[in-house]
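User: Predict the structure for this protein chain, please.
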Amino acid sequence: MRVEVSFKYLEKSDFIDNVLENNFRKLKRRIKIFRRDDPIHISVHVEKNPHKEQFFCRSHVYLPSSKVLVADEKGENSSLVINKAFSALIKQLDKEKSKWHKQRHKDKLNSE
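Assistant: Here is the predicted structure, written as structure tokens:
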């Protein structure tokens, strides 16, 4: 799993690192199923509006099936914004995982 994190108008801190690490652990549990194929790339961009107290988080998960999961969130608290974005990604991953399981089961039945 390749992880890329970038910040704009925001200093990297231990607190934000802990929030990101927590969320990466949650993602890792869900992407184990896709690991057999190719590596997965996760990209996270966290930005602070320089003029007011507002944060943005844009997250991408590039799956081996050439599918890209995207989550954009904004709000007044950096950790909440990051958590919301990762929650949206997790929800999308669970959907993809369900589709993947159905397809595998269908393929298994067809081959018998």
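The mean pLDDT is 89.
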